[in-house]
Amino acid sequence: MKVEIVTPVGIKYSGDVQGVIAPGESGDLGILPGHQALLSGLRTGVCTVQLGPHNDLPLVVDGGYVHVTGGQTVTITTELCEKAEDIVLDAARKQLDEATAELAQTRDDVETELWKVRKRAADLAETRVRVAATK
């Protein structure tokens, strides 16, 4: 199965894989060869590209869409895609602490635009820490 991950700055990953686990808006989506056609929104989270048995590549993705065509092609379009080696763990932990503190300041304003922005920043920072810890 062919997977391509595209961001505004270009293709971040392209290759043949055994499967993909993508962070869908309503839960994780497991995609294997032969999957039915699919178009789904993505949330910020870990996208796991399964390169082979016991050989997974975890990636940070920040929203976007996953499109499955022909049962053999998966295209992920996202704002951001980072590998573990692209992330400095200490910096990611600091960003998580800051984002969590800012989110806590708006806990009474859940569902406001400010809360949504801060929640997305906290989710992204938490995902970066999770992926960086896999190095």
What features would you describe in this structure?
By secondary structure, the chain is an alpha+beta fold. It has two domains: 2-84, ATP Synthase, domain 1; 88-132. The chain has helices spanning 89-105, 113-132; strands spanning 2-7, 10-16, 19-24, 27-31, 38-42, 45-52, 55-61, 64-69, 73-77, 81-83. The chain has a five-stranded mixed beta sheet, with no helix packed on it. A five-stranded antiparallel beta sheet has the order 4-3-6-7-10, covered by helices on one side. Helix 1 (89-105) runs antiparallel to helix 2 (113-132). The longest helix is centred in the C-terminal third of the chain and has 20 residues, at 113-132. The two termini are 25 Å apart. The model has no long low-confidence stretch (mean pLDDT 95).
What's a quick, concise take on this entry?
The chain has 135 residues and is α+β, with helices and mostly antiparallel strands.
Layout: helices, strands, pairs:
Blueprint (H helix, E strand, L loop, with lengths): L1 E6 L2 E7 L2 E6 L2 E5 L6 E5 L2 E8 L2 E7 L2 E6 L3 E5 L3 E3 L5 H17 L7 H20 L3
Parallel strand pairs: 1-9
Antiparallel strand pairs: 1-2, 3-4, 3-6, 5-8, 6-7, 7-10, 8-9
Features:
10 strands; ATP Synthase, domain 1; five-stranded mixed β-sheet; 135 residues; 2 helices; alpha+beta; 43% strand
CATH architecture of the largest domain: Sandwich
Number of strands: 10
Element-level helix/strand string = EEEEEEEEEEHH
Silhouette:
globular
**Number of helices, where a helix is a run of at least 4 consecutive DSSP H or I residues:** 2
Beta percentage is 35-45%
Determine the fraction of residues in helical runs and give it as a percent range: 25-40%
Structural class: alpha+beta
Task: State the separation between the terminal residues, measured CA to CA.
Answer: 25 Å
Within the largest sheet, what's the order of strands?
A: 2-1-9-8-5
What average pLDDT do the residues reach?
95
**CATH class type of the largest domain:** Mainly Beta
Uncertain runs are: none
Instruction: Give the assembly state of these chains.
Output: single chain
CATH level 4 superfamily of the largest domain: F0F1 ATP synthase delta/epsilon subunit, N-terminal
- How many domains, as an integer? 2
CATH topology of the largest domain: ATP Synthase, domain 1
Largest sheet: 5 strands, mixed
Kindly provide the radius of gyration, computed on alpha-carbon positions and rounded to a whole number of angstroms. 16 Å
